[in-house]
Amino acid sequence: MSQSAHYACIDVGTNTVKMVIADLANGGTVRVFEQSNNTRLGEGMQAQAMRLREVPMRRTLDAIVEYARIAKAHGVTGLAAVGTAALRDADNSTEFVERVEAACEVKIEVIPGEEEARLSYLAVRRDPRWRDERQLIVIDIGGGSTEVIHGDPNSDGIAARISLNVGAVKLTERFLRSDPPTIAQLSDANRFVQEEYARVENYPETPLPPTFVGVGGTVTNLGAMENGRILAPEELHGYTLSQDALEGQAARLSVLTIEQRKALPGLDPRRADIILGGAILLSQALARAGSTEVAVSTRGLRWGVLYDRFLKRSSQTLAAVE
């Protein structure tokens, strides 16, 4: 590789659109630029016969066009763009993908849930904080889907990839419709999530207590809330959130209105309406796996794409990244 080798990934999710630019020279991974925009691509989709609505599509398109401009300004050698749950589910996703390509020459690859799970796991397994962990479980709670990934011991390999067709936005729109939600709505939401996890056949048991790591906006916001302030990504990266703290956060969120949640220290106000749904999904995942805590990773799917598509493969079992 040359002295600097900048590569970019755009992650087009149901709730947010994220981009990272990293310098991958000499096998390293140095963050050059990273940004997230809450464009809510999947907003109202369930009520519109699973079709993306025009206003969310325009918001998301504008964000991607701006990201393409930034990537060009940084002189990136390569750019990959992936789409997740909203684009998997929407009847008119092809139309949106074509509009993006026509506007800025960015071609979005709509990836299946199993591939999303694999890449999210790779983002954690190749991270210096967790590459030496023997038993690793990664959870990625998106707006439209939730991925739980059990890794093979001491390797990049996947023992099981579990993709649930429910995320923080979908759970909120389906069950948590009152502001604040009613006791009945909370009960229905928790029961539904329990049933979704229970529906997974052959949910793997681990011989040793696994290290549980979460990626995505739900876990990063809950971690920041526990610290009482918004933290820089590298400050938050690696923070551990206990199950007791998580349940306490969910209980507090459940009795607050959206406007009251916006004032909570550490919470991004743009996530105030869906953070409770995300907390329920995370808490139930920990319970299902028998874990008492989850570590926070601020390097999610987009980093996994960078490692997979652009970082030269190492001959070792796990590639060391910095």
Tell me the name of the CATH class of the largest domain: Alpha Beta
The overall strand count is: 11
Separate helix tally: 12
CATH fold-level topology of the largest domain: Nucleotidyltransferase, domain 5
Content-based structural category: alpha/beta
CATH architecture of the largest domain: 2-Layer Sandwich
The biggest sheet, with number of strands, parallel, antiparallel or mixed sense and barrel status, is: 6 strands, mixed
Taking the alpha carbons of the first and last residues, their distance comes to: 16 Å
Helical fraction equals: 40-55%
Strand order in space, largest sheet: 8-7-6-9-11-10
Strand share of the residues? 15-25%
Q: Which value, in Å, is the CA radius of gyration? A: 19 Å
- Which superfamily, in CATH terms, is the homologous superfamily of the largest domain? Exopolyphosphatase. Domain 2
Mean pLDDT: 89
Which residue ranges are poorly predicted, with pLDDT under 50 across at least 5 consecutive positions?
313-322
Order of helices and strands: EEEHEHHEHEEEHHEHHEHHHEH
Please tell me what the overall shape is. Answer: globular
